[in-house]
């Protein structure tokens, strides 16, 4: 099935110049059945809102156990698979690494009708830890995973050893500046996605035009879903979680976080939900991560800030060594 539909000659030239063949994108199953994860995947069963659901996770055992666990929380446009290198190095350092796919994402179930909340995702995550008999863990959240992780540490402070936020979204309340749009509009936006639009978004929003071949895997993941005959369910869940992100801010509760916290913030990041819905003047005030990182450090008691110059929204993909070194140092304290 062709992925390239309507594309300008210039953009087609860019694809060829960069050695990218959009035709190589393969359809992916609704639960990524044909997408390989870096470690074996297991599942727990959940019964929520009248639906029987399965939550996927990876449980990476340490090479030389230090008795500590860390849980890695994925972002909205990703899944647990993008933590592969991070999990490998954490395992080498002695940590047991738990990597869940939240309901609605990755290899987990895509409910046909569910009311999403960060409380629900945090509760699911606690059920996962309970099933594994894990009573204490450090928690790392990236992007939307930072909002899930924040809610988790607020709900279960007794479980959390240390807390790490890597370029999380939700460091500001977009409702203050961005007009609300309904779930149906988010759904139409998701249905309109294809390889070219996903690639262009990641190129501009994550990497500031600096593309590397290893980034292609994460474009193909999203683009492969758009070719699935069940993509409407994936798109609907994505629309529901967009609404969750927009309407359920966590920023006001940062002062209540008790765990020692590390903020790893790529300074080039300008991610913000709904930037396309506001004027150019307002857009300039959104997603200002250098400022947001410092404000968040001041808001969270016992927080440390690591600022990564010339790094965007994905430090653990774009600048791995600069990400993993402060992470291991913080965990080892």
From TrEMBL:
Pfam families: Abhydrolase_1 (PF00561)
Keywords: Hydrolase
MF annotations from Gene Ontology: hydrolase activity
Domain annotation AB hydrolase-1: ranges: 69-176
Top-rank taxon, per record: Bacteria
Cited PANTHER family: HYDROLASE, PUTATIVE (AFU_ORTHOLOGUE AFUA_2G14860)-RELATED, MONOACYLGLYCEROL LIPASE
Listed name of the protein: Alpha/beta hydrolase
């Amino acid at each position: 099935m062709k992925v390239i539909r309507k594309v300008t000659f210039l953009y087609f030239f860019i694809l060829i110049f960069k050695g990218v063949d959009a035709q190589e994108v393969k359809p992916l199953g609704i639960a990524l059945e044909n997408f390989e994860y870096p470690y074996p995947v297991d599942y727990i069963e959940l019964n929520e809102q009248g639906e029987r659901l399965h939550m996927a996770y990876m449980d990476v055992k340490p090479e030389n156990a230090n008795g500590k666990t860390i849980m890695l929380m994925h972002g909205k446009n990703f899944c647990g698979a993008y933590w592969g290198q991070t999990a490998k190095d954490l395992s080498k350092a002695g940590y047991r690494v738990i990597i869940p796919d939240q309901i609605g994402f990755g290899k987990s179930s895509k409910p046909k009708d569910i009311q999403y909340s960060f409380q629900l995702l945090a509760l699911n995550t606690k059920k996962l830890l309970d099933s594994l008999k894990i009573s204490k863990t450090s928690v790392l959240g990236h992007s939307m995973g930072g909002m899930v992780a924040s809610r988790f540490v607020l709900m279960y402070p007794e479980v959390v050893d240390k807390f790490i936020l890597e370029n999380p979204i939700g460091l500001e309340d977009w409702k203050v500046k961005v007009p609300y749009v309904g779930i149906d509009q988010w759904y139409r936006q998701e249905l309109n996605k294809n390889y070219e639009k996903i690639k262009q978004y990641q190129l501009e929003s994550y990497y500031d035009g600096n593309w590397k071949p290893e980034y292609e895997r994460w474009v193909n993941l999203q683009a492969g879903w758009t070719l699935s005959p069940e993509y409407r369910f994936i798109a609907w869940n994505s629309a529901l979680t967009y609404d969750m992100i927009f309407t359920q801010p966590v920023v006001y509760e940062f002062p209540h976080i008790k765990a020692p916290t590390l903020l790893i913030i790529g300074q080039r990041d300008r991610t913000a939900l709904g930037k396309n819905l506001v004027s150019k003047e307002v857009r300039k005030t959104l997603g200002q991560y250098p400022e947001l990182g410092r404000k968040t450090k001041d808001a969270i008691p016992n927080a440390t800030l690591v600022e990564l110059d010339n790094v965007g929204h994905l430090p653990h993909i774009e600048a791995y060594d600069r990400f993993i070194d402060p992470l291991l140092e913080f965990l080892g304290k």
